[in-house]
Amino acid sequence: MRLLLELILFLPLCGAVLLALAGGRLPRRVVEAVACGTVWGSFAATLGAATLFASPAKVEIVNWLTDFEFAAPVTLYLDPLSLVIALMVTFVCGLIHLHAVAYMAGDPGYVRFFALLNLFVAAMLLLVLAENLPLLYMGWEGVGFCSYGLIGFWYREEKNATAARKAFIVTRIGDVALGIAIVWLYELFSTTSLTGINETVFLMPLMVITPIGILLLVGAMGKSAQLPLMVWLPDAMAGPTPVSALIHAATMVTAGVYLLIRLFPLVSVSPTVMAAIAVTGGASAFYGASCAVAQRDLKRVLAYSTISQIGFMMLGVGAGALAAATFHLIVHAFFKALLFLGAGCIITALHHEQDIYRMGGISRSLPAVSRLFLAGALCLAGFPLTGGFFSKDAILAAVWGRGGMLYLLLFLLGLATAFLTAYYTFRMVRLVCGGEGPAPQPLTPLMTGPLVPLAILGLGGGLLNIPHYLGEGLLGRVLASGGVRVEHAATATELALQAVAALTAVGGISLACHRYADSRRPLRIAEGAQPAGGLTAFLLHGWYADRLYARIFVEPFTGTARFLWQRVDAGLIDGGVDRLAELLGRCGSWLGRWSSGRVSTYLIYLAVGAVLLLGWLAGSAAGRGGW
Amino acid sequence: MGALLFYILATVMVVATVLAITGRHPVHAIVYLVTSFFALAGIFFLLLAPLVAMFEVIIYAGAVMVLFMFVIMMLDLGHPESGVRPGWRQWFPALVLSAVILVSLLLAAGSPATAPRTGGEGVKEFATLLYGRYGVAIEIISLQLLFAVVGALYLGRRR
Amino acid sequence: MIVPLAHILILAAVIFSLGLVCVLVWRSNVIMLLIGIEIMLNAAMLVFVGGSARWGAPDGQVFALMIMAMTSAEVSLALALVVYLHRRRRTVDVDAFRELRDP
Asked: Which of C50, C59, C76 is nearest residue B149 as measured by Cβ atoms?
């Protein structure tokens, strides 16, 4: 088990180090083989660990950071939750690496790309498998760094570099909150071990747990792009599409949800924190879905839908439905990666066109890709019997089962979001696939191949955790063995809720298909050509969140900075120092007349000084009457 | 007898020094100075410091003055006609300053002196002290000499 | 002690003053300037040796020796500098070298 865990973590790390150091001197095929091989090797090791898995295992690999009471060794913790997530991460990463080989075929910076991608996998696995908070934080920052490097991968364009910086700075707000929470937790519990904290949390007073929980939530908000720290994710789409698929859809952005699930025993103590998580999740879900309705850029539609879907996961965590949240996390990873890779295929095929109003005809020109894309869209929309349907329904059922006014409202918000999700998904699908469009360029099998297993997993994801009235779900059982609470509503309620959810999804899909049917297509495209106004513009610009933040934070900041720079620094300090220097300079040039540069003059000064001193000494000696 | 000798030597020394600093020819100045140093060596001998007296002759009158002579020869400075002699403007402040020194020292030295004590310190005590208590100083001085040699070599090398 | 210490000090003061005069007067010849410094150092040595004889302690003689060693080091460097400067300007006039002042 120890060896397997080490392999899981260190294979991608070694790959990253090798590529970063020697990648430039290796042939291209070798680089690609190393990048994919290490990730698949890591997947194989995870699979091996899964087959051998008997009980939660804690393995200390290296002793690192030990000082008196503080200890943060490199300890990996494999329990059902981390095992499931690690399996998902390595598998999805492996597929996306394969896709990326094809996607990056013409790019000269492939070594940097694959090195960062491998490093990302290593950091993500470290985050997932970490047993103590500092190690988790290291992985957390590691994925943030890789995300930064990969969003700005084509850094020669100002826009991409700005997007990368924005992502880095906005997530930093959350990271600071998480850092404070870690220090606070250590101060309270005298340990940084996750298991240790979760075991002794009942000893702590509620009034301390609540702010810590809120801090953890803020950390999760930053990483998972939840309200109000969601502004970075749509811009993060500036990176290559495989990166969007891997980091900004499937894995990294779910880290916040993972953190909250990991520390659920802690956060669940405080009802306030739970409500805050649920509200954040519900609001983000609705926000993302509403914005996605109006987007024109294919990748931004998916980005907003990611915010929305992660909102669902947060809602699940806030409702205490860990199994459902984890289930949605995994299924979402499959279908969102599928959608992004499909989008990558479509964008490549259409010569890097990203505006969905200028696309079309994919179902005829690229039938295979269009069918796979449709599969992902069905999952996202929550079409009955797909994986997305079951996972989303499980979350909504948990929110319903929670009871109370707040959760009822959140349930209704969730339903509305589900409807919007179905609507925008099929708006996108109809615009991309229907009608006529430009002739695509052919795609390699390596590019489309990874979509197939993802589509199968996305569509059949429901089997991972079938509703309990059909038998105990696999995922639920696995997670329950790890101590995660799994709750079920009554069968009748659950069936009724599923029927409601199914109706919602089908309703949204049919509305979209109606509005964006081929017969109305020219009308919609003509509408799209108009400049957006009113509600559409509001939604297109993400509720003007960027502008709001610019008004609230950026402008006062730059204003203060300008004041400090021009008035205080340049005016007051520099001016004062200048004037002082001028005064001193004038004194100096006046005194400078005394220094002629002649050695003899200086000798005379020296002699005069010495003589004066000597005369004074002799005078005082004579005054005292001798030596 | 010793006292008489001291005053004679002192007179010789002052006269020789005055001649040295007023002479127009640098080589003459060096020769007068050697005379002055010999007189000083005699005074040292009278003051029961034979070793210092010998070193005075060997190092000062011998080595240092010869070094000066070398440089004068080398730079061909033995032509006082071409040199500029100091004028009144140079002499005046120097004489004033030295007068102040003399007066103040006379004032100080004129105070009643304690009874002189005779007593000889042999070369042996001197050597014991030199290499005992002042051993570190010897080391440092020798290092300084080494640096001086290196510096002189560096400055004197032809470029 | 053959003579009072005061007489030795007076002699030293006279010699020192003569050295100072030499230094201050001979600005046209750097060699003479250095000779003046030698004279002043000799006066200092005389004070040391006189004190040593007066109090019967050989420390003063040791310091006289130190002064000698230091002087030889100083003279060798100073004369090397003189040679160097003379090579540059063809003169030994002290006032010809005014690099200490800003140009």
From this structure: C76
Q: Whole-model pTM above 0.90?
A: no
Residues B131 and B56 in one domain: no
Q: Is residue B95 part of a domain?
A: no
Domain that holds residue A554: 549-591
Decide if pLDDT at A424 tops 90.
Answer: no
Q: Using a CB–CB cutoff of 8 Å, tell me whether B29 touches chain C.
A: yes
Question: Is residue B115 very low, low, confident or very high in pLDDT (cuts 50, 70, 90)?
Answer: very low
Q: B101 to chain C: nearest residue by CA?
A: C17
Q: How many domains does chain A have?
A: 3
CB contact under 8 A, C102 and A607: no
Query: Quick one: A585 and A599 in the same domain?
Result: no
Claim to verify: residue B66 and residue B135 sit in the same structural domain:
no
pLDDT digits (tens, 9 = 90+) for A235-259: 888 878 888 888 777 788 888 888 8
C24: its two tokens: 């201050």
- Measured distance CA(A361)–CA(A376) in Å, rounded: 18
The Cα–Cα gap between A249 and A519 comes to 33
Top-confidence residue, A42 or A320? A42
Residue A478 has a pLDDT of: 65
Alpha-carbon distance of B120 to A38, in angstroms, equals 93
Task: Please tell me the distance from the alpha carbon of residue A568 to that of residue B68, in angstroms, as a whole number.
Answer: 64
Query: How many domains does chain C divide into?
Result: 1
The answer to whether A592 contacts chain C (CB < 8 Å) is: yes
Please state the domain count of chain B: 2
Residue B126's domain comprises 122-159
Q: Which other chains touch chain A, taking contact as 3+ CB pairs less than 8 Å apart?
A: B, C
Q: Which of B14, B55, B94 is closest, CB to CB, to C20? A: B94
Q: Tell me whether residue C101 is in a domain.
A: no
The ipTM assigned to this model is: 0.86
Indicate if A285 and A370 belong to the same structural domain: yes
> Does A623 share its domain with A531?
no
Q: Which amino acid is at A480?
A: A
Q: Are A621 and B105 in contact (CB under 8 A)?
A: no
The confidence band for C45, taking pLDDT boundaries of 50, 70 and 90, is: very high
Residue C9: predicted pLDDT: 86
Instruction: Report cis status (omega within 30 of 0) of the bond before A228.
Output: yes
